[in-house]
Predict the structure of Phosphoesterase domain-containing protein.
Amino acid sequence: MLFSNINGINKKKIVLFPHNNPDGDALGSSLALLFYFRKLKHDVDLISPTEYPESFQWLPGTEDILVFSKHTESLVKKKIVNSDYIFFIDFNNFSRINKIKNLILCSKAKKILIDHHPYPFCFDFMFSDPTVAATSILVFRFISDMNNLDKIDKKIATCLYVGLMTDTGFFRFPSVTSETHFIAGKLIEKGIDINSIYDHLQEKYNENRLKLLSKALKKLKIIKKYRTAYTSIKSSDINFDSYKPEDKEGIITYGLGIKNIVFSVLFFEEKEKFPIKISFRSKGNFDVNMFARKHFRGGGHRNAAGGTSEKNLYESIKYFLNIIPYYYKPLMFSI
């Protein structure tokens, strides 16, 4: 029914939502759908709950993204109320879209999930598969199931490829499968510029990012017994005049680069506000998704997750250190 309605001749009003602070997969998947639905002659809006990283402004279609704020709230509300379909892309929990949640819950539009995170909420239509490496794969499947792969052009392929690259760590993560490479191959056939994409996605170290990295590395602690590394960033470490959320990206991976370390954690305090934000990364079969869900009201994937703590930075780290001993066996035998 959904496919026939969207594929039909009747023009639909569609709203696309990525999650807060959208990453490459969320933006790439959303932009790909924006171009795709436009090709089907639908009225489409892409609304980001927050600002998106400047490092993705080169992506085609970003100029059409409507960022939710107090200045755009009435316009966003109008688009939500008048929509026929609302797509939720690369997240499965309304907590990931801030205040927009209340606007959406009042809408009579059909709500459609396209996401690869585990334990999704229930939506009217669900394209959910936590085993795949990226939501971009599910968007490709979605277009394929509608028998419209011929509508994937260079712009759509570029957006989907960015989603694949960013959520697979440039095709390095354990979640990568033959399907991942098959889809990448199909996207390459559309004439995308791989060298340009790779160059854009390589980390650009501005002065503020390097200073944050330096401070985080100075505070890096290693717990050899539990094959764990952790560090923290305090609000006093941050120059907020030039700070951007993406400045802390990549810091957590340095811990995993240490020999025999399988668990890396970053505690982040922003403007002395709560909650403390925590990022988790792991190697092998140590499940940071379950760890974050159980102890830090978070979640994500087996090897990459996030969480929060209502305690201050010192108490949050202390709590973490108190629970780590209970994971001695899973950490020691992670492969």
Summary: The chain has two domains: 2-201, 207-332. The first helix runs from residue 2 to 7.
